[in-house]
Amino acid sequence: MANGTIVTPIGYWGGVLELKGIRVDAEFEVFESGGGWDFLFGKRLMTTFGAIHDYSTDTVRIRVQGAEETLHNQFNIMTNRPTTTSVHNVTEVQRRKTAEVGEDEEWIERMLHVRLHVESTVGETERLRHQRDRCEEEETRKAQERLDSLRAERERLEEVVKEEEEIERNEAKARARKMWKKWKGASQRRHRRWKTRMMPVKTIPKQNGTNCDERNPMGTATTTQEAEGSETAPVCVVSEEAEDQVEEGMAEIPTDTLVEDKNLFTRLTDPFKPQRVEEVVRQVRVGDDLSAEEKAAAHALVAEYADIFALSVGEVRHVEGAVHRLNIQENVTFSKKVHQKPNTPPQRKYLHKSIDAMLAAGIIEQCEPSQVKCVSPTTLAQKAHQGAGLSLEELQHRVNDECVAHGMDAPFDLPLRPETTAEEDEKADEPKWRICQNFAQINKVTQ
């Protein structure tokens, strides 16, 4: 403005503007004049039209590309001045006045049309701006709602994870307490039996409500008693759990056919089950260089600690809390090429049986082909002394047989050779292998 005030326009207009038949591409700003003017022909627009203002005649000449027109002031200041011209001049002035008024009305009508167009453009601009603001507000509201929803979902998942971790911790504690109770009872029983045999016996007076055996429950004299030559002192074993008593005179149970009996695999539930203890003692081999008393003592020791022996792979306990993780980078890749190597029928039979046993015991698990990350060869190495000859004991028995057949004394003092069935002979001759897995690829990236 003339006083230096900067007024912000409320809209912009651009297009073709026509005055007196002269058309130019023009653009102008729209201001709120408060009714001061309808259309202000400013300097930029006058420059575009090449306007020249003649103050003596109060007219404006516009010239564009050789076309020239004259615009007269709508107030006709010059025609209102006093004149002494003739009637002819007055008539000419009136005619010109009438023509100029017509031109001015036409120009005003065009300006009104332009103003209406500008007002409609400004209204459309305002409407679009309000619509844009509403869309932005709606998008902001939706984005905030999505963010709040994601935060709530994340908090819910964190709560679920915390609850699951708490449940897992409680279950682990419960398993540990259960395992401790089971192992605690067996350990206490072993300790009592060892203490009763090895420690000096002390006389324990009878107490009311306590049923005590008058004799040593183990039936053997202690070291102190043997040294002093005294009789077996009365011992009272007080326990929350009753000792397992094995009645004498029980018939012998053949165990050769119980090797595959699943009822014997009770290490996790009943490690001192009589049938299981008997099978453990049968499978533990004692050398022939021991006397009968020493063999009996060895068998008794094995029976006492029968819970530490596993009759099958499924009886091997997992160590609680033990986790082994391989430090392998994410971008490391391994070979997945399968190298074909045929196996003999006995090898396939042994390998498939071993895999089934490890699957049943939970040592390995099946996976989809898409889950395989590394492929390495598996080698079956035949165990030593398998199909390579007779055992030492069998050789000694055969030497004794030949000596007796030729009237000579047997050089080896051996027990009678146990009779074997055809099925046992066939099973004894069945070859066995060691399953060897090649971990060279994994070792290379984890060293």
Automatic annotation (TrEMBL):
<feature type="region of interest" description="Disordered">
    <location>
        <begin position="203"/>
        <end position="233"/>
    </location>
</feature>
<feature type="coiled-coil region">
    <location>
        <begin position="133"/>
        <end position="177"/>
    </location>
</feature>
<feature type="region of interest" description="Disordered">
    <location>
        <begin position="410"/>
        <end position="430"/>
    </location>
</feature>
<keyword id="KW-0175">Coiled coil</keyword>
<protein>
    <submittedName>
        <fullName>Retrotransposable element Tf2 155 kDa protein type 1-like</fullName>
    </submittedName>
</protein>
